[in-house]
Specification:
The protein is an alpha/beta fold and 588 residues long. The chain is built from 25 helices and 13 strands. The strands form 2 sheets. It has an 8-stranded mixed beta sheet with strand order 6-7-9-8-10-11-12-13, with helices on both faces. Helix 3 (41-70) crosses helix 17 (437-449) and helix 14 packs across helix 22 (508-515).
Length: 588
């Protein structure tokens, strides 16, 4: 068989074709595979090292071309607002309204040539609106949501404004900063009472205070209306602010306005407000500010005295499916999930300080929650995060569990046995990760464009494990989970690229250091074609504290298909540790 001749011309042609016509992305994949993935690993990497500068420049230019084509809008401003199902209007950065639809005219009394500042808003809302216009003008934000309140003819009505910056509309190409406002009026709904009670443990009296505030009444007026002393109402108000973790009445009412919008949508769809045994409303997204001024967003699933499990899920949002949560809560576990911090760098390798800061954020959260020992649970690349955390803060970690993480990549054999889709991505992540930006942008474009695009992206991401594709198509719950994962990843394409960068590093030294004092458990699909379970068994033979639990019949979906197994193993470990600690305490 003649030796393969490496030629990058076909790749260069394909990358520009894809930028101009995203539907040709498959041709780029085939060209890349022909040159690199279907070749011997060492020879392909040698060629890539020589051609990387040339190829990276072409990928960067193609990326710029693709972005420029996506920013062109071919509709008139009136077409845009008329296509919106809710009240919508478009302004320039000074707030001058240049287009509005019939719903905006009817519900918000908006007309052409009026200024958005003419909307009768309360003082706080007016300030927020001014700030938003300035941010849009300086292009610091592409989209923003405001929960604001009106006065006068709006009767203290609450409503939500979603602002989105538009670029290069046909009629107003000379003004590249137009702002599309979408608005939804929200009214008090009986369903909000259950949401407030479940989410914040508010009493019926406290909820009545909030309802009165929503009507625009002052604390003094509420006291008079309810025949209570002003001190009593103030005490209830103080309790409300503490329970909802808000600082002022204004912040509280903006938060309530957002919840009202959800309740209104449920009413519009005529859906009953019913919750599973462990509903999402019980576990709202919470925030804390770190000592260095950053913000941590997290969800805390479970009872305060349950055994805590800190979840490292960098490719999943903090909001988890109820069917995933329930097995943990039923076994007396408490799941703590985080949203990945925003604005992290593309490369951890060049900016390790940011990654260490990310891990410190986890530790600050545990301090805030007053937790001394946790189980660290990592999914996919999150298993590496969990081990890194255990290495830096060993006194905080009881055990580490890695689901579908795989063994550290230490040999060429592992690369050769890797599934084609994984090898295609990981090879670039290892050698030149910035070249992954343009392909991931094309994949994101396909995913968010249509349902057919979503199906194609699912098939692409899980191509190494055909059984997973089949299971996703045949199980509504699995499909919802897969779409949730892909949507979260592709909204910020740097997120999956950072994950791939972490994966291709040899993180074995970290694992070995953790295993000196902390047990590590790998729960891995026995059909996983990305990372062979055999490599994990070999590691287990060398390390006494490393254990492998095969997830029979699973590939890349172990977290959802074997949730019961994961929860059971963690609960058993927590029970064992608690028994040992109790025995030690009694001896002392």
């Amino acid at each position: 068989m003649p030796e393969k001749r490496f030629d990058d011309d076909r790749i260069v042609d394909a990358v520009y074709d894809s930028a101009l016509a995203p539907q040709r992305f498959d041709a780029l994949v085939r060209a890349w595979d022909d040159v690199f993935v279907d070749s011997q690993i060492d020879k392909a990497e040698l060629f890539l090292s020589k051609a990387r500068n040339t190829l990276s420049r072409h990928f960067e230019r193609a990326d710029q071309i693709f972005l420029s084509t996506q920013n062109v809008q071919h509709h008139s401003v009136q077409d845009i607002v008329d296509s919106e199902p809710t009240s919508a209007f478009i302004t320039d950065t000074k707030g001058q309204i240049i287009a509005s639809n019939a719903s905006a005219t009817e519900n918000l009394c908006i007309s052409h040539h009026m200024n958005v500042h003419s909307l009768p808003l309360d003082a706080k809302s007016e300030t927020q609106l001014n700030t938003l216009l300035k941010q849009m003008a300086s292009k610091r934000d592409d989209a923003q949501t405001l929960a604001i309140r009106g006065v006068n003819q709006f009767n203290n009505q609450a409503f939500v404004l979603v602002a989105q910056r538009l670029v290069n509309t046909a009629k107003h190409a000379q003004d590249s900063t137009l702002i599309l406002f979408k608005s939804s009026l929200v009214t008090w709904h009986s369903g909000i009472e259950k949401v407030l009670a479940n989410a914040f443990e508010l009493t019926s009296a406290e909820i009545e205070v909030i309802e009165s505030l929503n009507k625009g009444l002052s604390l003094k007026e509420i006291a008079q209306q309810r025949a209570r002393s002003l001190n009593t109402i103030r005490t209830q108000m103080k309790s409300i602010l503490q329970k909802t973790e808000t600082q002022t009445q204004s912040n509280l009412m903006r938060h309530v306005t957002s919840l009202l919008l959800v309740a209104n949508k449920l009413e519009e769809k005529q859906l009953p407000i019913s919750e599973p045994e462990y509903g999402f409303a019980e576990f709202p997204l919470k925030t804390i500010n770190t000592t260095d001024g950053n913000t941590i967003r997290y969800r805390d699933y479970g009872k305060p005295k349950a055994s805590p499990v800190l979840c490292f899920f960098p490719v999943l949002p903090s909001k988890q499916h109820a069917s995933f949560i329930e097995p943990f809560l039923k076994r007396g576990l408490r799941l703590i999930t985080l949203e990945e911090p925003e604005n992290l760098p593309l490369s951890f390798r060049s900016k390790k300080d940011e990654f260490e800061h990310y891990l410190r954020c986890f530790n600050e959260l545990l301090t805030h929650l007053k937790l001394k020992k946790v189980v660290a649970l990592g999914h996919c690349v999150g298993g590496i995060y969990a081990n890194e955390y255990a290495k830096r803060f060993p006194e905080q970690v009881r055990a580490v569990y890695c689901v579908d993480t795989g063994a550290p990549l230490q040999s060429q054999t592992q690369w050769e046995q890797m599934g084609k889709t994984a090898r295609r991505t990981f090879m670039l992540a290892k050698n030149f990760p910035s070249m992954l930006l343009m392909p991931h942008r094309l994949v994101a474009h396909r995913f968010f464009k249509s349902k057919d695009g979503q199906e194609q992206v699912i098939n692409y991401f899980y191509a190494d494990n055909p059984d997973d594709v089949k299971n996703i198509q045949g199980d509504v719950r699995l499909k919802e989970w897969a779409l949730n994962l892909l949507s979260y990843c592709l909204r910020d394409i740097k997120r999956p690229i950072r994950a791939c960068e972490m994966w291709v590093q040899n993180w074995y030294p970290t694992l070995a250091q953790v295993l000196e004092t902390i047990p590590v458990f790998f729960i891995h699909g026995d059909k996983n074609q990305q990372f062979s379970i055999d490599d994990l068994h070999e590691l287990a033979d060398r390390h006494e504290r490393l254990s492998v639990a095969p997830a029979n019949g699973a590939a890349q979906l172990t977290l959802m298909t074997h949730t019961d197994l994961i929860a059971l193993l963690i609960a058993e470990q927590c029970y064992l540790d608690a028994s040992q600690e109790q025995a030690l305490s009694s001896q002392l």
